[in-house]
Recover the amino acids of this structure.
């Protein structure tokens, strides 16, 4: 294998494919990137067996071939070369990277040990890539990082009433996002960890989405991201969504986010932030015996059956939900201090964030 | 993971010279390159092994494993009874349960099991001589420092006593008292705790897991 290409093009395909490469893996070969040169194309594959990223770029080819090289070393080495053309070629057991003076010699990893990965092309539904990445960002905040409950670490993709519906929950909060007009036929639980890499790996103006029986495939002109589906049954979330709320307050999203940022100076996860919904807006307060506290008023419009409603939340979960709302004004709907509240945007249907209060 | 059961002899040369006479043994070749020769006994410990990185060269009836330190393991296969390879995939790692960190987390979520009305101020509360496991508030405005151990011994009580001394210097926290919590507390530790004015509480790890933390969840 011997190729020549611009440093920035090579750094881009190596860095994006390397996002699938795990730092802690039982198989040493999985720390490598598979580089394949055929025709005038360099195709780069990185995988941790759960997530596979394939990237490709056009290069000047002197000799076709394949090699596996440490992903981190390859991406870092190319990125740190001086600007300009870079030549990459294999010797018996090494890969040489030469760029405008510097010359790296990196050991090859075993090509035979690199796993044989699914390559079957799938026919997906083409969607607006930016909208998809934004939607994933809105729901993925609610997914759990607790590997002990794998079904909560995924985002449910399922056909909605009018398009694609994505849902995630960690049992304390639940985010639902509808993408109208997106007809993805299959359904499945897609790892949130891999979804968060979509924008940085194959994000583009148009992305094709397919949910197959065992994996979800996202493809664009920049490459493909394949995520192995999580097995298990997602919680029956529809029954968790309350039908009505007696109290609601509408406030400026930025003002609430700034207040929560100030609150976070004092609060930690286990110190709840208290909201008092009342005429004229919402009072935000936090108090810690060993540190002190903070309190402020955010003007807004309150409608409720009670004069004053108090509810407390985990401050990080609340900030995640408010931050996920894509609207200037955010609405908080509350039943009482013990039942789930709902956060969404004013006049921006298609997203809601259900948040369980903290008992105080 | 390659698993071979074979009638074999094994010779090792390196830090010392060792010979395993002909016998039926299990040879494991792990995905990371580690080669281990086991007998049908001796618990987890192989009779001989070569950790990665190494080079395994398979000849006709002979395996030679060498490593960069110059060590050499020669396995002569007289009769191969079984030879198979399995893809085990990524290992999620060992998750230990019942260690101090688990106990501390359980008590942080349910401090009232140690004493009615306790609420958590902070885990790992810093002092100038190290962090105290849990700092809680009692309903009367006092502060309670809690040291959590799996096995409560004298040194744990002494450690908590030192923390109490430091915490009592902070006017925001005074008065500060201590609770020494452990799954088992030795009689000596219990006596010392009483002498220092520290409460000693034994906790049931299994039982703690069944106590509702009071957290509200969607499901």
């Amino acid at each position: 294998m011997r190729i020549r290409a611009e440093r920035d093009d090579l750094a881009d395909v190596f860095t994006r494919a390397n996002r699938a490469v795990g730092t802690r893996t039982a198989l040493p070969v999985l720390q490598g990137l598979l580089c394949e040169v055929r025709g005038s194309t360099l195709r780069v594959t990185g995988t941790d067996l759960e997530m596979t990223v394939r990237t490709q770029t056009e290069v000047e080819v002197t000799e076709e071939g394949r090699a596996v090289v440490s992903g981190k070393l390859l991406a870092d080495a190319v990125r740190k070369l001086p600007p300009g053309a870079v030549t990459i070629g294999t010797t018996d057991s090494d890969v040489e990277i030469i760029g405008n003076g510097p010359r790296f010699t990196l050991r090859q990893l075993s090509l035979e040990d690199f796993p044989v990965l699914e390559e079957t092309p799938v026919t997906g539904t083409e969607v607006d890539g930016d909208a998809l990445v934004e939607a994933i960002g809105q729901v993925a905040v609610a997914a759990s990082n607790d590997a002990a409950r794998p079904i909560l670490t995924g985002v449910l993709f399922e056909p909605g009433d009018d398009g694609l519906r994505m849902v995630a929950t960690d049992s304390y909060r639940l985010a639902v996002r509808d993408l109208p007009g997106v007809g993805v036929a299959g359904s499945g639980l897609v790892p949130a960890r891999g979804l968060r890499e979509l924008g940085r790996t194959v994000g583009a103006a148009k992305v094709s989405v397919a949910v197959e029986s065992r994996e979800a495939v996202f493809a664009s002109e920049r490459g493909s991201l394949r995520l192995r589906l999580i097995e298990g049954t997602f919680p029956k979330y529809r029954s968790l969504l309350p039908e009505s709320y007696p109290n609601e307050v509408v406030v400026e999203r930025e003002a609430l986010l700034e207040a929560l940022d100030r609150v976070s100076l004092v609060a930690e996860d286990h110190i709840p932030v208290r909201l008092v919904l009342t005429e004229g807006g919402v009072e935000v307060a936090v108090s810690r015996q060993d540190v002190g506290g903070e309190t402020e008023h955010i003007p807004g419009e309150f409608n409720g059956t009670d004069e004053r409603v108090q509810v407390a939340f985990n401050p990080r979960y609340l900030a995640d939900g408010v931050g996920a709302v894509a609207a200037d004004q955010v609405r908080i709907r509350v039943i009482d201090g013990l039942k789930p509240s709902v956060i969404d945007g004013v006049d921006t249907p298609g997203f809601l964030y259900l948040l369980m209060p903290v008992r105080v | 993971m390659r698993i071979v059961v074979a009638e074999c002899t094994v010779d090792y040369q390196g830090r010392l010279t060792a010979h395993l006479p002909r016998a039926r043994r299990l040879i494991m070749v792990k995905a990371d390159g580690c080669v281990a020769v086991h007998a049908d006994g001796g618990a987890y410990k192989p009779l001989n092994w070569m950790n990665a990185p190494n080079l395994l060269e398979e000849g006709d009836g002979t395996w030679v494993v060498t490593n960069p330190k110059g060590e050499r393991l020669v396995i002569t296969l007289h009769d191969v009874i079984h030879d198979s390879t399995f893809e085990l995939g990524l290992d999620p790692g060992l998750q230990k349960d019942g260690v101090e960190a688990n106990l501390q987390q359980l008590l942080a979520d349910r401090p009232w099991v140690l004493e009615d009305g306790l609420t958590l101020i902070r885990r790992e509360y810093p002092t100038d001589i190290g962090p105290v496991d849990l700092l809680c508030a009692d309903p009367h405005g006092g502060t309670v420092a809690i040291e959590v151990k799996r096995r409560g011994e004298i040194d744990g009580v002494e450690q908590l006593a030192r923390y109490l001394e430091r915490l009592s210097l902070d006017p925001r926290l005074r008065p500060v008292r201590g609770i020494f919590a452990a799954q088992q507390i030795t009689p000596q530790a219990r006596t010392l705790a009483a002498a220092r004015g520290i409460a000693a509480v034994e906790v049931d790890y299994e039982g703690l897991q069944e106590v509702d933390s009071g957290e509200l969840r969607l499901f």
